[in-house]
Amino acid sequence: MTILITGATGLVGERLVPRLVEAGLDCRLLLRAGKTCHPGATAVTGDILDPSTLSEAVQGVSAIVHLAAVFRSPDIDLIWRSNLEGTRNLIAAVKADAPGARFIMASTSNVYNRNSTQPGRETDSVEPQQAYPASKVAAEELLRESDLNWSILRFPFVYGDGDGHLEMLPKHLVTFGFHPANRMSTIHHRDIATAMRLALAGAFDGRIVNISDEAPTTVYELVGLAGHKMEPSCEPMQNPWHLHVDASLARSLGFQPTVRTVYQAVQEQIL
């Protein structure tokens, strides 16, 4: 099985690629000129914003793992071009040159409404206001309407393997308006690979699937694990289910996290 991976040098990609290579998969990485290819993978020069580079990249592949995205950026236009137009270009290339390939796209639990009355479910309506989740929802719709064999994995807060993401959380407390008792779903990089191997085997075909571990953790605790202290509060939460997802569908389709909680990651020293 030859897999084309976009976003291979990003926060998720650079930790996923080694695991897929180790699992014996033939990984082809779509890289901009000058980027370093992981040993054991094959590089193909290209850019999802340059359609002329994508035909060669997708030829002969049996699956696409689409991770490339722009998340935190003040450039709203770049977010939309990368996440929506880039996905549109990639879909067009796959339809033209690898129509039988399985197309797996990484998305985000940020798409769920902040004022939800329950943990976010795949069947919930989504109308995100911020550019990143809004662009991902639009890209999801493109893929779902493409007639390709697709699956969409919505990841919550991703951490582990020294990626620094958890350490960044305290800087965003005011921006996101977290209450210390808010419980946030999480997923370790090891289990992004667990989920991706299932997706590559077809377990999630034609579905949007939430992927998370077994224990949503309070923001207060996560900030503490990052070495900081959050001001406590006994005031009622306004959005108790914000960034908390229901992952029961993934469980029913065979997904079982190997890093079940953030505290297991602490014990195994894999933060």
What key attributes describe this structure?
single chain; 271 residues; alpha/beta; Rossmann fold; two-stranded parallel ribbon; 11 strands; 33% helix; 17% strand; globular
Task: Tell me about this structure.
The protein is of the alpha/beta class. The chain has one domain (2-159, 186-213, 247-258): NAD(P)-binding Rossmann-like Domain (Rossmann fold, 3-Layer(aba) Sandwich), CATH 3.40.50. Helices cover 33% and strands 17% of the residues. The protein has helices spanning 13-22, 54-58, 76-97, 131-144, 165-168, 173-176, 189-200, 219-225, 248-252, 262-267; strands spanning 2-6, 26-31, 42-45, 63-66, 102-108, 149-155, 157-159, 183-184, 186-188, 208-210, 217-218. Strands 3-2-1-4-5-6-10 form a seven-stranded parallel beta sheet, with helices on both faces. Strands 7-9 form a two-stranded parallel ribbon. Helix 3 runs parallel beside helix 4. It is globular.
Order of helices and strands: EHEEHEHEHEEHHEEHEEHHH
What is the gyration radius calculated from CA atoms? 18 Å
Examine the secondary-structure arrangement and name the CATH architecture: 3-Layer(aba) Sandwich
The CATH class designation is Alpha Beta
The shape is globular
Give the rounded overall mean pLDDT: 96
CATH topology assignment:
Rossmann fold
Count of separate structural domains: 1
Percentage of β-strand residues: 15-25%
